Amino acid sequence: MTKWTRIKDLIKKYKVFIELLVSIIFISILVTKFLDMNNFTKEIEQTNYILLLYTLIFTLLSWIFRAIRWREITTIYKQISIKDSLKFYLIGVYYGSITPGKIGEFVKGLSYAKKYGISKQNGLASVFFEKVFDIIVFVIFVGSYLLTKNLLIMIVCSLVLTPIIWTIFVKLGIKTHNIPFLKKINFPKINLNKELFLITITSVITWICFSIVAFIILKSLNVTIPITYLLYCVSLAVIITIIPISFNGWGLRESAYVFLLKDFISPNISIFFSVLFVFLTTYFLAILGLITKLSKVHK
User: Is-contact 290 94, C-beta < 8 A?
Assistant: First the structure.
């Protein structure tokens, strides 16, 4: 065994511990260097919690659009019903919220594979392909914002470029089909069909919903930031937290928002905003997922 192999084995063995440690380090820096406890209560005490309730509407819409998108992706294998798609998606969010790197979200792929009689590899692949669409849309949003700072152009670019980049990704994936794991996966056919365009549209709408959630949260804190910039910030923050070095992005995500929103709001508000955003867009659905898992609906 080489030295590099031993290092990789150690990292794999202690991955959760390392991620927790990184999150603790980032949170510690935020608390000691950026969070002003003397003014924190004063800055958030005027929060309009009634207005925050409206964010739940857009969170539920994002869940519906993501479930529709996943359902379209499953046409590669056996198309899942919309009911199962909604149900398994909630359960996946629940498991994702309590596991490192949100790997628990792949539970929905396993649930789908078990019920519909397909291989586990293909069930997991359906979730993986869904994540690829998210990453593509994030990158396009960030890139088009930096070039134009125009919301309409950002949306148009994402709608036009996502199918093109997806097609390139599939071609590259097919060429790497000699990798053992990938041999067991059915790759999508390279077709610019209605399913691909529906997946693209639902992906774009999903993240617009999240940006609206961000806008409403900040509005409830008596802050107004252009939705165009928030779409960029949310996309970039998600890209940053995809890096598997922290526990579900905690600490890393808050640090990103402190930096990205520094020209508009104080670090206190940025950190509070980030925590609210995660709870309203993820843990709210995770609670629904837990209820679904424990209810007779899942049986």
Answer: yes
**What's the number of CA atoms in the CB half-sphere (13 Å) around residue 213?**
29
C-alpha distances (whole Å) from 47 to each of 266, 272, 290 are: 15, 11, 28
Q: Are 186 and 125 in contact (CB under 8 A)?
A: yes
pLDDT at 15: 66
DSSP 8-state assignment for residue 97: H
In the chain (299 residues long), the average pLDDT of successive 10-residue segments reads 49 64 80 79 85 95 95 89 94 86 82 91 88 93 95 95 88 62 60 81 94 95 93 92 78 91 92 93 93 72
Nearby residues of 290 by Cβ (< 8 Å), 6 or more positions away: 94
Let me know: does 289 contact 92? Beta carbons within 8 Å: yes
Rounded to whole angstroms, how far apart are CA atoms 285 and 249?
17
Both tokens assigned to 63: 């869940």
Give the C-alpha distances (Å, rounded to integers) separating 72 from 50, 80, 133: 35, 8, 12
pTM equals 0.86
Q: Residue 223 in contact with residue 265, Cβ under 8 Å?
A: yes
